[in-house]
UniProtKB/TrEMBL annotation:
Protein name (Swiss-Prot/TrEMBL): Amidase family protein
InterPro entries reported for this sequence: Amidase_dom (IPR023631), AS_sf (IPR036928)
Highest taxon in the source lineage: Bacteria
Domain Amidase: residue ranges: 28-441
Pfam families for this protein: Amidase
Organism of derivation: Saccharothrix xinjiangensis
Length: 470
């Protein structure tokens, strides 16, 4: 069996070496995950279902390892967000309307996961429909899974929408998990729960078989205990080599403080800045522009893309409803779906006119060009390799009356389609604090810088699963 350390699971390199030496089996890893999930998930509520074929998958991995035919992720258990199709295992996006017949096919990224030798361990909870249902929604809540909680403080939010994936990795339930992001849905919950979260560059991983918010902005990504593990997973899924950490001496980083962040965030950011400078990096304060019309363009496009993409997915899935209007009606008849908050986002998207749908492409292009120019301009002006920023403010107390307004730095890189990696870098009281690294267009180039930031000021801790912050 595998025992986790104070920082969670051993590294993937260590796990794979132990598997190859026969010190542990893939079956042992699956059993360790199952034991940890049984012990802590009744409190955290991150895992919706375990895959009943996980033990058989592990036996196949053990056979391949014994035969000398191991693949990059052979025998490594991976949890998968429940908006990513898994053949024969329910994929619901958190909605009861999809809780019946499971998908017939794996999403393309799950096909790649299996081909790399990973064991698909199970499915994780999420903010229902990728948090694109209501302006009064609660992150980490779905009608299927209930409320996922932050393992560092169970009375606080885990963020979302990849809530379960982040909380599960943070609590040591699995070494890796897949999530998805449109704007902040990987990096924000990763930062709030104190793990590494990587949203790759747009298009690095395939999106077929993923319940969409926006085919033009969605990305499948990874949650892990370290940048190296996230990079290794992405390398296994793409066939691309992971880059080593960038030399810290002389590394030029832009420091963006975001907009109107909590004072505790600024104090932690000052500490991170001093640690980077002491290690030899050049850290330059920068500002990114904030163009409200372009941000509105991006949001308008999102509503149109959501309707077109989701209706296409529902039709291909042969779901009980195939239109947004049908989904709205089904929710009205359901005793659980609207028990905490409404569905005004679904209703707005369902009511779009043909003219509004037709305007989406031009609005998307304007928003993307602006965001790309904003980041590229700052990098060029100051001769920077990347930008470092606080990912988000600290986790907030859970309140099923709706989440407060919480500021983050995710929108510009999301609109630009750039990779974004968050690294756990400290704590504000009992709550994790994460810093984001973005700017390079290449995912592995961004991860190279993130690995350096992690080496200088990383702070990964296995949570005590405490009921309250105290």
């Amino acid at each position: 069996m595998i025992e986790t350390t104070a920082a969670g699971w051993p590294s993937l390199t260590d796990l794979r070496a132990r598997l190859d030496r026969g010190e542990v089996t893939a079956g042992d890893l699956v059993a360790s995950c199952a034991d940890r999930i049984a012990a802590v998930d009744p409190l955290v509520r991150a895992v919706l279902a375990l895959d009943p074929t996980a033990a058989a998958q592990a036996r196949e991995s053990d056979r391949r390892i014994a035969a000398g035919a191991a693949r990059a992720l052979e025998g490594v258990p991976v949890l998968v967000k429940d908006n990513i199709d898994t053949a024969g295992l329910a994929t619901t996006a958190g909605s009861r309307v999809l809780a019946g017949e499971p998908p017939r096919r794996d999403a393309d990224v799950v096909v790649r996961l299996r081909r790399a030798g990973a064991v698909v361990l199970g499915k994780t909870n999420l903010s229902e429909w990728g948090n694109f249902r209501s302006t009064g929604a609660v992150e980490g809540w779905s009608a299927v899974g209930g409320q996922t909680r932050n393992p560092h403080a169970l009375d606080h939010s885990p963020g979302g929408s990849s809530s379960g994936s982040a909380a599960a990795v943070a609590a040591g339930m699995a070494p890796l998990a897949l999530g998805t992001e449109t704007d902040g849905s990987i990096v924000v919950p990763a930062a709030l729960t104190g793990v590494v979260g990587v949203k790759p560059a747009l298009g690095l991983l395939p999106g077929r078989g993923v319940v969409p918010v926006s085919r033009a902005q969605d990305a499948v990504g990874v949650l892990a205990g370290s940048v190296a593990d996230a990079a290794a997973c992405l390398g296994a899924l793409t066939g691309l080599p992971a880059a080593p950490g960038a030399p810290v001496t002389g590394l030029r980083l832009g420091l963006w403080r975001g907009r109107r962040m909590d004072p505790g965030v600024h104090a932690e950011l000052d500490r991170v800045t001093e640690e980077l400078r002491h290690a030899g990096a050049v850290v330059v304060p920068v500002e990114l522009p904030w163009d409200v019309p372009r941000l509105v363009d991006g949001l308008d496009a999102l509503f149109a893309e959501f309707r077109v993409g989701l209706e296409g997915y529902l039709t291909a899935r042969r779901a009980p409803v195939t239109t947004l209007a049908g989904l709205v009606e089904a929710n009205l008849r359901d005793p659980v779906e609207l028990s905490l908050f409404g569905q005004d986002v679904l209703e707005r998207a369902a009511a779009l006119t043909d003219e509004q749908l037709g305007e989406a492409a031009a609005k998307r292009a304007r928003a993307r060009w602006w965001a790309q120019d904003a980041v590229a301009g700052v990098l060029a002006e100051h001769d920077l390799t990347a930008i470092v920023a606080p990912t988000t403010e600290p986790a907030w107390p859970l309140d099923h009356g709706g989440d407060p307004v919480v500021r983050n730095t995710t929108t510009i890189p999301a609109l630009a389609g750039l990779p974004n990696a968050t690294v756990p870098a400290g704590f504000i009281g009992a709550l994790p604090f994460g810093v984001s690294v973005f700017g390079p267009r290449d995912t592995f180039a961004a991860l190279s810088v993130a690995a350096t930031v992690e080496a200088v000021c990383g702070d990964l801790r296995l949570p005590a699963i405490s009921p309250v912050t105290g």
